[in-house]
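hey
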């Protein structure tokens, strides 16, 4: 698949310098769009595409009913999607440094549509899992949209540009569960995937008309581009620490959401996927906490905010353990959990971007690959713990992942008199 994508992306030697927004060609490609208009489009691209990896979470009980023989394995659906997203981050996201991001976005959008069609018509759970893996790999389009925003904006507005696109990304994550729950409740889970295909095709038309081409920043071949990320892992201790703590915290976060659907479907709630999806709106508290966490990381340092995040997530799972029959308790726990995980992610990313400014895309790729491997692990462990030990087992598993993040965070703290490498 990678070789095919490279062939599609290849350009003639004379076109190695692809047009930027400020050039005549790019202005034509952008159809006269202003920078705010382009940022809004990129934010929409990020939100609409990333939503595809979260649509399945409120639908797990519907999957169980459609494929009763594989009920014990339905956790493989969200796990495969997140594992696929990690693989897509590793294999596809670095291509944005080498090829036109607009072309990459369009090719991946087409691929996601094909994978969604397979998911919507899946005759067996195995086919749905395979389609979910492909959706995860190809839905990494947001990882092209964010650096694209940084390229289009002038240096003095770059932070605002990236923040705008990240807001779209976060809203896509939060509202995906709500939209999927609503559509699944009234029209069935297969319609959720079909509706996403329609939305992506409409978005592709806008991309063709409005989005300019991008300008590559690297001439490295594909293999060397991937290999350079390993050198970053070896060289940057701070990247290893942030990736490990981020993976553990996202594992804790990800094990909760699929199981919430199963909890709400049973006693004493008897609620459908729409109710589980509505909890995504409650998670908007995480979006509100994002800028506050960023300012706190600038003022107090990322490590202090990460410490607070670990404490908040531990409190959230303690609340969940006491709220297995209480909607109010679950809502409070979701708010605390989302604030904790969002604050940790922003602080970790703030930390790693300062490590190697000239390689931010690849540093981010390393972090996000580990992040979503953690998410896939958490989704699988959460459903397994639910079947084996019930709701309390899920809460204990969440506390265990959170505690592991705390151990890593504490063990890697800078020591007095340590050199620069220790704090990097």
């Amino acid at each position: 698949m990678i070789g095919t994508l490279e062939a599609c992306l290849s350009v003639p030697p004379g076109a190695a310098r692809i047009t930027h927004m400020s050039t005549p060609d790019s202005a034509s490609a952008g159809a006269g769009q202003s920078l705010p208009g382009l940022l809004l489009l990129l934010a929409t691209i990020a939100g609409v595409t990333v939503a595809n990896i979260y649509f399945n979470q409120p639908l797990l009980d519907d999957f169980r009913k459609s494929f009763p023989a594989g009920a014990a394995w339905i956790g493989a659906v969200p796990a495969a999607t997140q594992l696929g997203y990690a693989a897509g981050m590793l294999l596809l996201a670095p291509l944005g440094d080498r090829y036109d991001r607009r072309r990459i976005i369009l090719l991946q959008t087409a691929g996601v549509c094909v994978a969604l069609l397979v998911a919507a018509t899946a005759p067996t759970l195995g086919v749905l899992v395979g389609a979910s893996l492909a959706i995860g790999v190809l839905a990494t389009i947001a990882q092209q949209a964010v650096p694209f925003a940084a390229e289009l904006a002038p240096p003095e507005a770059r932070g605002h540009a990236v923040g705008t696109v990240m807001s779209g990304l976060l809203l896509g994550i939060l509202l995906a569960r709500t939209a999927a729950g609503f559509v699944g409740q009234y029209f069935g889970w297969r319609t959720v995937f079909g509706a996403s295909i329609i939305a992506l095709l409409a978005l592709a038309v806008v991309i063709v008309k409005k989005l300019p081409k991008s300008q590559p920043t690297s001439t490295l071949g594909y293999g060397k581009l991937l290999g350079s990320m390993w050198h970053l892992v070896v060289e940057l201790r701070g990247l290893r620490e942030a990736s490990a703590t981020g993976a553990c915290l996202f594992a804790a976060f990800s094990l909760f959401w699929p199981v919430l659907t199963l909890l709400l479907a049973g006693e004493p709630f008897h609620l459908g996927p729409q109710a589980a999806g509505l909890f995504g709106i409650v998670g908007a508290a995480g979006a509100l906490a994002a800028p506050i966490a960023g300012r706190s990381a600038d003022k107090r340092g990322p490590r202090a905010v990460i410490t607070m995040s670990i404490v908040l997530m531990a409190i959230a799972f303690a609340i969940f353990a006491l709220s297995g029959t209480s909607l109010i308790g679950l809502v409070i726990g979701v708010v605390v959990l989302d604030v904790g995980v969002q604050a940790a992610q922003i602080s970790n990313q703030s930390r790693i971007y300062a490590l190697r400014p000239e390689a931010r895309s690849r540093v981010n790729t390393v972090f996000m690959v580990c992040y979503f491997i953690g998410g896939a692990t958490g989704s699988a462990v959460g459903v397994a713990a639910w079947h084996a030990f019930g709701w309390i087992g899920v809460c204990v598993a969440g506390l265990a992942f959170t505690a592991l993040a705390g151990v890593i965070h504490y063990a890697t703290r800078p020591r007095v008199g340590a050199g620069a490498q220790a704090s990097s």
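Residues 225-411 form a domain with the Growth Hormone; Chain: A; fold (CATH 1.20.1250.20). The longest helix spans residues 360-411.
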